[in-house]
Amino acid sequence: MSSPSSSLSKTDLEQQIQFLKEIDQLKSVIRKSPLINQSRRENSAEHSWHLAMYALILKDHADAPINLERVLKMLLIHDIVEIDAGDHPIHEAVDHAAQEAKELAAAERIFGLLPTAQGEELKALWFEFEAAQSDDARFAKSLDRLQPMMHNLETNGGTWTEANVTHEQAEQRYTPVIQSGSSSLWRYAKEQVDRFFLGKK
């Protein structure tokens, strides 16, 4: 009986290795969010790993039943397009149409490095995450918004302070997305945001 790996052609393996080498570049995409110890800013690969851990630990807070494996896959690949398109924080003005076009082109190029079936599977998960219509994607999106919020709270405002974000803006940018995937995480997030901003007045 053949092993699963025996069905892979040499070309398939070469494509997979090329993809894995290519995504090493995500370690060089620097985000605005500081590390909690404030020694430097985090990179997008670290962010993706941390989100996968958020999903693993907080999975029971999802409002709807989720497929954890699919959520983990979404979180591990969701920012791969930043290799070509860069990171654009929610607190900065950006041409959304132009950014979406860059990210789509990046998704086509990077996932296109893989064998066709595998690349199409991951690209479909990326699109699902972006659309945030499924239960899995909504929970993944909620964590993607929660993690940088926690970093800001732990670093005396972090990117909020840098971008002069108001209490109202923070609520608008974080609460609805977090609430869409988890009511309990939303209640926690709102309480923390309120405490941070109102406590400073």
TrEMBL record:
Give UniProt keywords alphabetically: Hydrolase, Metal-binding
Ranges for domain HD come to 23-186
Pfam families documented for this protein: HD_3
Q: What is a single molecular function from GO for this protein?
A: 5'-deoxynucleotidase activity
One GO location term (cellular component) = cytoplasm
Q: Which residues form the signal peptide?
A: none
| SUPFAM superfamilies recorded | HD-domain/PDEase-like
What is this protein's record name? 5'-deoxynucleotidase YfbR and related HD superfamily hydrolases
Lineage start: Bacteria, Pseudomonadati, Pseudomonadota, Gammaproteobacteria, Oceanospirillales
